[in-house]
UniProtKB/TrEMBL annotation:
It comes from Bacteroides caccae. Gene3D superfamilies: P-loop containing nucleotide triphosphate hydrolases (3.40.50.300). Pfam families: CbiA (PF01656). Residues 8-204 form the CobQ/CobB/MinD/ParA nucleotide binding domain. This is ParA family protein.
Length: 250
């Protein structure tokens, strides 16, 4: 029987928080290492889109034998490359549904642009099962994330019969020396307002910026291969994936 996948949007009021990076590293970990089948709908039309990342990844694999071998091993294990489809925000949920009709997925992710003002963003949010909102630990971003999550929750209260079940926030780009007291206070405030914050937090690490390259050996952000085990340690990503599997009942 065909699976009904979960539809999960990654969204925030602000760009540059790390939405796309978190989404693609999480998707690759789930799909290539954790036996969960995923797909991505990409609503970003800029150079930083995941669709473009996939193209860069493909080019690097073609140029580099080492990556080609890894990919071939993965294929032989029966692990398939997940699709990344482009869509406008207003069509994202429809495109996600079309993907789900063609193959069995556990999760279809939607990478939304960093603004609710763009046409179709709210409509898409209401029509997914869950929204994931990364919050970077910097005052300005915290405020805008808070406003974003609050307004989605408010809409949620007013509209009972929509697919959206929950909005989960999680900390990202947490600096080693960040003031935990500020974060704790902020967290208490968010919880008081009924917002849900995941236990897992993602540290600020330059590995999140590392793509396949012919110059260096290490990579982390990749749409064709999982984050390498050695790099995964300390990244917070495995903990996030584990927590989401429980929260999403997968
Ligand atoms: N955990 C992290 N630690 C350090 N840098 C990060 C982290 N997550 C994302 N970044 C960097 O932040 C920048 C913005 O990330 P991106 O995923 O494009 O954000 P968004 O999709 O929200 O606009 C990129 O340069 C990315 O490499
Ligand atoms: Mg992005």
């Amino acid at each position: 029987m065909k699976k009904n996948p979960l539809f999960v949007a990654v969204s925030n009021q602000k760009g540059g928080v790390g939405k796309s990076t978190m989404l693609v590293t999480l998707a690759s970990l789930l799909n290539y290492s954790m036996d969960k089948s995923v797909a991505i709908v990409d609503c970003d039309s800029t150079q930083r889109s995941l669709f473009n990342l996939r193209e860069r990844d493909m080019e690097m694999v073609e140029k580099n034998k080492k990556y080609m071998v890894l990919l071939e091993e993965q294929r032989l294990r029966g692990c398939r490359i997940y699709p990344i489809r482009q869509a406008k925000p207003e069509n994202a949920r429809q495109v996600a549904g079309e993907l789900a009709a063609k193959a069995d997925f556990d999760i279809v992710f939607i990478d939304l642009p960093g603004s609710m003002d763009i046409s179709g963003v709210l409509q898409t949010i209401f029509n997914v099962d869950y929204v994931l909102t990364p919050i970077a630990a910097d005052n300005f971003v915290m405020d805008s994330s808070f406003v974003f999550a609050k307004s989605v929750m408010k809409f949620l209260e007013n509209r009972k019969n929509i697919p959206l079940k929950d909005v989960f926030l999680f900390w990202t780009k947490v600096k080693k020396r960040s003031n935990t007291e500020v974060l704790d206070n902020y967290m208490a405030l968010m919880k008081k307002q009924g917002l849900k914050i995941l236990d897992s937090a993602i540290p600020d690490l330059c590995r999140y910026d590392k793509e396949l390259s012919s110059r260096t050996r290490t990579y982390f952000r990749c749409s064709l291969l999982p984050p390498p085990a050695g790099q995964l340690k300390g990244s917070g990503l495995q903990e996030l994936a584990n927590e989401l599997i429980v929260k999403f009942n997968l």
